[in-house]
Design a protein that fits this description.
Elements: E1 3-9, E2 14-19, E3 22-27, H1 28-34, H2 44-69, H3 74-82, H4 87-99, H5 105-120, H6 124-133, H7 138-145, H8 154-164, H9 167-170, H10 173-185, H11 190-202
Antiparallel strand pairs: 1-2, 2-3
Helix pairs in contact: 2-4, 3-4, 5-6, 5-7, 6-7, 8-11, 10-11
Length: about 200
């Protein structure tokens, strides 16, 4: 494979390497690492490395495009990237983004947990399931949930309960059981749930 021309975009720190039959857009860093120049005839190994560098930059662009719409965990981003790009390239890009601080699973998991608790009034168990579904690892989830250690969930439970059931409805045993099941699905423990239901009924 012959390198016909090399065009550097200093602003974007990208390089277009035009070869016989194909053009490759790669990062300036990868171009310098490859050590190729206009007029070089690339060995099979160098040609494969050039192709890999182009695929990597394409994956990087996809990653930043996805992150521009929504914050997401490295796990979720890797799954989405792997749908369009080779798995090993997606993993390499994720590692790079983590190293450079573009992804921070611990901080993001914490913010999500805080938001779910305050805006949706979800309990720790549901928050844990939601964070897991969003691709966060166990250590990041545990860190995020530490903020709820020792917290009294009464206000959240009461808010959810009063938005769905009246005091009169809760006087019915079957309705009270349905209410408890609903609150359990929202992530709260049975002991806390029945304490609030009994409190409301006795008011």
């Amino acid at each position: 494979m012959l390198v016909i021309s090399v065009l550097e975009n200093k602003e974007k720190r990208e390089v277009t390497v035009k070869c016989t039959g194909e053009n490759f857009l790669i990062t300036l860093s990868d171009y310098l690492s490859l050590g190729i120049s206009e007029g070089d005839f690339l060995s099979e190994e160098k040609a494969e490395a050039l192709e890999y560098a182009a695929k990597k930059l394409s994956c990087i662009k996809s990653a930043f495009s996805m992150l521009s719409y929504n914050d997401m965990s490295s796990g979720k981003l890797k799954r989405k990237l792997s749908q369009k790009h080779e798995k090993d390239i997606a993993e390499t890009v994720i590692e790079m983004l983590l190293e450079r601080g573009y992804l921070n699973d611990e901080a993001l998991a914490y913010r999500y947990a805080e938001s779910f608790y305050e805006s949706k009034k979800w309990g720790p168990a549901r928050i844990r399931n939601e964070l897991y579904a969003r691709g966060f690892g166990s250590s990041d989830i545990n860190y995020a949930l530490e903020q709820f250690d020792g917290i009294d969930h009464s206000e959240n439970i009461k808010t959810l309960l009063e938005a769905k059931y009246s005091k009169a409805q809760l006087s019915d045993r079957d309705t009270a059981r349905k209410a408890a099941a609903y609150l359990y699905r929202q992530g709260y423990e049975s002991s806390d749930i029945y304490e609030i239901i009994n409190m409301i009924y006795q008011e």
